[in-house]
Amino acid sequence: MMALDTVSGYFTRDGRSYCIIDSDREFKECTDDIIGTLDYSESFRRIYSHPVSGENVFKFNYGPSTGGMIETLDLKIYTYGERILSLDVLPGYKQRQIRIAGESKDLALLRIERLNGFHSFSYSTLFSSAVERMLEIPVSQEVRYARIILLEIERITSHIFKTARLCESASQNIASYALMGLRERLMRAIAEGTGHRYLFGVNKIGGLRRKIDLDRIVKVARGVVKEYVNIRNGLFVSRIFIDRIENTCRAEYSFARGPVLRAAGIRYDFRMHDPYYSGIDFTPVTQNGGDSLSRFLVFSEEVERSMEIIEKCMTPGERGNFLIPSHENEAYGIETPSGDARMVFSINNDHIGHIYLRTPSILNLEAFARGIRGNVKTDIPFALESFGIWVSELGDVA
Amino acid sequence: MKLWPLESAKKGILTTGFPKKKNETISPWSTLPVRVNDEEAYCPVDAISDAGVDINRCISCGLCDNAMKPSLETGNYGVLRKEPALKKSFKIFLIDSGTCGACNTEMMSIANPYYDVSRLGIFFTNTPKQADAVAIMGVYTEKMEPVIRRAIEAMSKPSVVILFGACALSGGIIGTGLKGKFNPDLIIGGCPPDPFIIIEALEKVRGR
């Protein structure tokens, strides 16, 4: 139950400090002293510094722009050879300033969905549904279930991508290409069914902007998931693959988010608390190893679970409108494919007021920086992939 | 034991015949919109004028759909200088200046089995020293400017500079673009650009 008491967000407003706790839907006032006792509090300020010194220890630079990594990220590795003694992560090279406060709701939505293009639908749903709840704008059950289906489709494409990258890093190139092919198949179906491969412009406040061909997307998704399971089963019998990822980058931290947390045996998934998912029978997937293999297993099983959720939502049986009013001081949340994101904001005269957004990568990057200690440098790319970290999510949202 | 090559062979050939054959599909709103009526079209980035849609600005949001529809054409790019010396082999180094991640993964998509650009002599490289082109993605960020400059200088000549996606071209809806900072030989529009658009643009810039 440790994770349920984890402080997973921290912000200041008008000279006061507030924190978000996993077990609570509302943010609470707190003191800086309490936050200071958390050994991961620096990550809320995007500082990931873990210097070490010793005989023959030197800093090896990896990044900011180099092969093997998808996004710009600078790593300073403390080492005396191949083994990583410690690591500083400098995510600030591509730090974007994403201005939301003072903007209209519609413009803010366009910016929010470009916070992380890979998980854009998760963020646009988080924002849209929060505005709808604040302003008590009901959406139809049809829209609610369509959003859940698209959220799960986004999770499937994201998990397939991460699995493919893991395979590539572990020299399983045929499996990696096969998985990338599966992802492409699903992306094409998403484009044909929604008008955009990354689901940009699909959400709007109060519903969906376009007519979505869910039948077409889900039909392709069924085939993709079936093939994905077949590839995964093939990988399980590869001793080389298992050896490569087993015991790599073990991370058992209660502050970690999403699949990283669940791979360490902690049963926390924001979908359990999300009113959007109320009435949908759902059990989080967990593993106990905390290593890259466990995260791979969580990704794989979650792909199947997502498909099960989609099937339930295709025949929901509920009609009418859906609206769950906001709590006072609510920290809105959503389970993105990389873990839960929490958001606090206000609306003043139809414009967005102060906003605070804690994305899963903010905390998972700290878990990565700790977990990689003791591993070798060549482990970095697939350890990073298995954490589902997106540097774009670390930008300044204000 | 799984026989990977056998499993792959069973699937047949997935790879497109593009650009010799027509593209099988395209992400509709990543193509430039065209007018369908005279209604006033709303555009959050002022990309629409009487002259048409500005490929530098369009963020593929589809908010203009009351008056516009996607063209479904692959011409969402501009070649400013061709480099025919790179016709046979073209190695690209990717630089992320400040993206949301979509441009990065979309660019990488052109290597997946459905597009397999190695058949066209296009490859990705891990260092600018071995590159024939740098593809710069995302909005302007101060700390990345010197990194990008060093990458461009490190390339052996002849080489090509590509500005990739609406953020790099104009800043999109997030920030400032890179056009005033670097002189591109090729611009590719879209948010993010579709893989078929990317492939056609890369073919054209090297005179194929």
Total of DSSP H or I helical runs spanning 4+ residues of chain B: 5
Task: Give the H and E element order of chain B.
Answer: HEEEEEEHEEHEHEH
Mean model confidence by pLDDT of chain B = 96
How many β-strand runs of chain B? Answer: 10
Give the class-level CATH name of chain A: Mainly Alpha
Helix share bin of chain A: 25-40%
Biggest interface and residues each: A-B, 56 and 59 residues
Using the alpha-carbon principal axes, give the shape of chain A. globular
Cross-sheet strand order for the largest sheet of chain A: 1-2-3
Q: What is the CA-based Rg of chain B, rounded?
A: 18 Å
Per CATH, the architecture of chain A is: Orthogonal Bundle
Tell me the strand order in the biggest sheet of chain B. Answer: 5-10-9-8-6-7
Order of helical and strand elements of chain A: EEEHEEEEHHEHHEEHHHHEEEEHHE
The CATH homology group name of chain A: Cytochrome-c3 Hydrogenase, chain B
Return the CATH class of the domain at 77-205 in chain B. Alpha Beta
Give the quaternary arrangement of the chains: heterodimer
Strand content of chain B: 15-25%
Low-confidence stretches of chain A: none
How many structural domains can be distinguished in the coordinates of chain A? 1
What is the rounded distance between the termini of chain B? Answer: 44 Å
Question: Overview of this structure, please?
Answer:
With 398 residues, chain A is an alpha+beta fold. Chain A has one domain (97-397): Cytochrome-c3 Hydrogenase, chain B (Orthogonal Bundle), CATH 1.10.645.10. In chain A, 39% of the residues lie in helices and 17% in strands. Chain A has helices spanning 32-37, 105-112, 120-134, 141-169, 173-194, 214-236, 239-245, 258-262, 292-314, 360-371, 380-386, and strands at 7-13, 16-21, 28-30, 58-62, 74-79, 84-90, 97-98, 139-140, 203-204, 207-208, 321-322, 332-336, 339-348, 351-358, 396-397. In chain A, strands 1-2-3 form a three-stranded antiparallel beta sheet. A three-stranded antiparallel beta sheet of chain A has the order 4-5-6. A three-stranded antiparallel beta sheet of chain A has the order 12-13-14. In chain A, helix 4 packs antiparallel against helix 9 (292-314). With 208 residues, chain B is α/β, with parallel strands linked by helices. In chain B, 20% of the residues lie in helices and 19% in strands. Chain B has helices at residues 4-10, 102-109, 144-154, 166-170, 195-205, and strands at 33-35, 48-49, 52-53, 68-70, 77-79, 90-98, 122-124, 133-138, 160-164, 186-188. A six-stranded mixed beta sheet of chain B has the order 5-10-9-8-6-7. In chain B, strands 1-4 form a two-stranded antiparallel ribbon. In chain B, strands 2-3 form a two-stranded antiparallel sheet. The longest helix of chain B is centred in the C-terminal third of the chain and has 11 residues, at 144-154. Chain B is globular and about 60 Å long.
